[in-house]
Design a protein that fits this description.
209 residues; globular
């Protein structure tokens, strides 16, 4: 009934609010989806992401699965990053099982570089996911990189529309992949991180590969 549904929605919002305001949860899902040409009207996307409306079209179902997978990531930020968490998150996103060898590569990168700065480690994880994942790799890369930011108690990274072009240019040319996304206007709670700081971190990471 309607009372039960409202209660369930409040519980979901409370879980997300333990880490960030609700708007930054749906903004990440919405803007990463836009990167993939899933351009739902803002209000419709918000309703789907927050489970306030039924997902019906293929685009809506993709946005919904992304939201469910990212919510799972948020709700496991205080757990040890493990094969189970990565496998479960990827399955929620894609309905597919990520190979153990791929998961091992991702985990090894995480633990080998765990003591590095949050920006550096998030960038490395983003790159590692892009190398090891095929289906919905961009969504998964943002999920795992932002899990690092949450674990390090930093603000999550949301790729607004003005970074789409440099992001895909970087992927195509195989250089500072994703790091132009980490840099410009790295802001979530009304403050910015330096573009050049992030660029230098990413370029250093790429040189060491």
């Amino acid at each position: 009934n309607s009372k039960t549904n409202k209660k369930e929605r409040r519980i979901k919002i409370m879980i997300v609010n333990n880490e960030m305001e609700i708007k930054f949860f749906y903004r990440l899902v919405e803007y990463v989806s836009k990167m993939k040409k899933i351009d739902l009207p803002h209000e419709r996307a918000k309703l789907i992401i927050l489970d306030n409306n039924k997902a019906e079209t293929k685009a809506e179902l993709e946005v919904k699965s992304f939201a469910e997978a990212y919510l799972y990531i948020i709700n496991n930020k205080n757990q040890i990053l493990s094969t189970t968490i990565i496998k479960r998150a990827y399955y929620l996103l894609t309905g597919k099982i990520l190979r153990e060898a791929k998961i091992k590569n991702i985990l090894e990168t995480y633990y080998r570089n765990y003591d590095e700065s949050s920006h550096y480690l998030a960038a490395l994880m983003h790159l590692e996911v892009l190398k090891n994942v095929r289906t919905r790799k961009i969504e998964f890369a943002f999920m795992i990189a932002n899990l690092v930011m949450l674990k390090k108690k930093r603000n999550v990274v949301i790729p607004y529309e003005y970074v789409y072009k440099p992001y895909f240019k970087a992927i195509k040319e195989k250089w500072s992949v994703s790091l132009l996304v980490w840099s410009p206007l790295y802001w979530v709670t009304f403050f910015m991180e330096s573009l050049w700081r992030m660029c230098s971190v990413l370029m250093t990471a790429l040189r060491q590969q």
